[in-house]
Every structure is written in structure tokens, then in C-alpha cells.
Amino acid sequence: MEKGINPTHEDSLLAHYPPEAQIHLDQPTVVCDEFSIIIFWYLPGAIDLPIQNDMVVATAKMSVPLARSVMHGTTANDNWRTHSSNFYPSQSEGTPGCINLSPAWFLQGHPALKFHPHVLATLKEFDGQSFSQAMYRLVALIATALRVMHPKLYWSSLATKLALGLWAADKKLDEMGDHL
Q1: 29 - beta bridge partners?
Q2: For residue 115, how many C-alpha atoms fall within 13 Å in the half-sphere facing its CB?
Q3: What is the distance of C-alpha 23 from the center of its chain?
Q4: Which of 137, 143, 151, 167 has the smallest number of Cβ neighbours within 10 A?
């Protein structure tokens, strides 16, 4: 059995809740908890090699801001969300890190009358248009999964994207529309 990040805790859980049998998943499977809530989807082949290659390309386009996002302070409290201790070393050419790729960013703490979304600075600085285009098929895949797994959230995301797109068009903010 493959171990995660805390083998001692996992061994304790396995001893306390032993599986009835070893199961080898080789077909699409849904695992539910005691309340019939889906806790795990296993969809082999859902992300085929061309889509995986798209992910590599999109990640490579953001390698510089990803590298900048990782903090290397002396303690994990320096900036815990993006501290280097939270990321495993890359086993490929990818850069481990954490970056917010929201196409528009809410300016928190500003009065409502002055509020207006902006294109994320990362997308402006690092060829964001190319990155957005590289993500189109991946976003479609995620949207498809969301439509099945959480329909209300899916429809809410579409309504938000449409409203933001209409607002950006009305304000002649073409750059924001391009990233949506």
C-alpha cells in the first residue's frame, strides 16, 4: 500500500479500520461514506496523455511566477500558505509552488463605490493570454466534472463568469474579457 505524508497515522487508521479485502480498482468507481456522500471518484483514463501534456505546457508557462510564489523563510509561519515545506520536490521539470490564477481579483478592503475587478497581475506580467489559452481544454474538463459532481456550484460559476464578462464588456475592459 502506498503511504502518504504521515505513515504512522495511516498505520494507526488501518489498524483501527482494517479493510475487508484488498481492492484493485481497474474501472470507474465511486466510493461513498456511510451517508452515501461521494468521497472519492476513480476515473481511469479521464485525463489522457494529450490532456496531461496540456497540463505540462500550461504549468511550464507559469514556472517563473510559481517559483516566485514559494517562500523559503526559516519557519513555516513566515507565510504558511506558500512556504517551501508544503511542497514536495518536483520529480519532473515542473516548479512546485502555489499561485492564484483567478482571472479577476476582488480588491478586499476597498469601499464598494471604488470596487472594480482587475486582471491578476501575474497574468499581465507573464504572458497571461498564452497561459489562458493553454488552459481552455483543462478548464472544460474541470467544468464537466463539476457539472456532474456539484451541479449548483457549476451553474453558479457560469452565472458569475457571464456576469463578469458582461460587466467587463460594458466597461470596455477587453483584457479581462480575453482571460475569461
Answers
A1: 42
A2: 11
A3: 29
A4: 151
Summarize pLDDT for 94-140 with one digit per residue, the tens: 666 665 555 445 555 556 556 677 777 667 776 777 777 777 888 88
Whole-structure pTM value:
0.55
Which grid cell is 29? Answer: 468507481
Q: Are 106 and 117 in contact (CB under 8 A)?
A: yes
CB of 65 closer than 8 Å to CB of 126 = yes
Q: In this predicted structure, what is the pLDDT of residue 79?
A: 63
In this structure, which amino acid lies at residue 2?
A: E
The DSSP line for the chain is ----S-HHHHHHHHHHS--SS-----S-EEEE-TTS-EEEEE-TTSS-HHHHHHHHHHHHHTHHHHHHH-B--SSTTSSGGGBGGGSPPPSSSPPP------SEE--TTS-GGG---EE-HHHHHTTHHHHHHHHHHHHHHHHHHHHHH-HHHHHHHHHHHHHHHHHHHHTT-HHHHHH-
The sign of the dihedral angle between the CA atoms of 63, 54, 84, 81 is positive
pLDDT in tens, 66-78: 666 666 555 555 5
- The answer to whether 86 and 98 have CB atoms below 8 angstroms apart is yes
